[in-house]
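Structure tokens please, single chain.
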Amino acid sequence: MAPRFPVAKFTEAYLIYLRLFGAIALARTSAAPLIVAVGGALRADSSTERALRHALAHAHALGARVRLFSGPALDIPLYAPERSARTPEAAALLEALRQADGVILGSPGYHGGVSGLVKNVLDYAEDLRDDPRCYLEDRAVGCVGTGGGWQGATAALAALRSIVHALRGWNTPLGVAINTAEPAFDASGACLDPKIAAQLDTLAAQVVDFARRAMAARQVAEAKSRLAVG
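Here you go.
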């Protein structure tokens, strides 16, 4: 007698496949990832802020939701782990990072590294240590370093990428260094150099693409968990 075809098991497996495929499709086509950019200087419209705005504009064009923390939004007290009180500005920044699916960081080069302002802001990520996604875990992070010369710009970029690694984030393959000794943006904030614009666009696209992939993976994990329970 020929063995019976396991219809029930095949049907069950096919239904599982459809549900998992549906979760991936939903995450990739419907959900809009949240990309949060942090950095710049206290003054408005710094070169770093303009670079972040350009990257966020491209991320938005790719279907992402975006938020920027720059200028006065970075004016928060020095981080001190023994003090638990948070100003409204610090609390808003932390909540945005907590909800972010991807992050873009930018800093001017200060004496071989990032500015104290940006470093202080990133130190507040210590508040995320007990989150399910600890620090910047499971998030792609694009980094932009600026400076009045290549030495400062590349030093800032390298320092940012090192900090991202320490915070368990995923550095995008491309990081962008901008030499502001050469005109990079006009008075309206538009990028003057097509090569810099292309690099910032690529960085933003990498952050958005990874964010969508990570969102899809979480949806699949949740679907598997529900199937295991059910």
